[in-house]
Design a protein that fits this description.
By secondary structure, this protein is an alpha/beta fold. The chain contains two helices and five strands. This is Response regulatory domain-containing protein.
Amino acid sequence: MNNDQLSYKPVGFIDDNALLTGKKLMGYSVLGTAKEMHHLLHKHPIDGILISFQHTNDQIQTFIKTCKENDIYVKQFNIHLKSL
């Protein structure tokens, strides 16, 4: 997760499962849900968001819009596992 070559320094995770808020995932705290994004942007030093979901819907578009309105970059990453 923490990759000096890419200059990303994770602050934590955002997950729509509110039961995970405050818990650790891969050593980083789950900060809250996407619905709490506006609050989280003001509470934590966030320069950018890396998203890992594939589908797009209204909630995700709202999430992306909120980020862009607050000068937060949004990038999508995905991992594909392929049998060889």
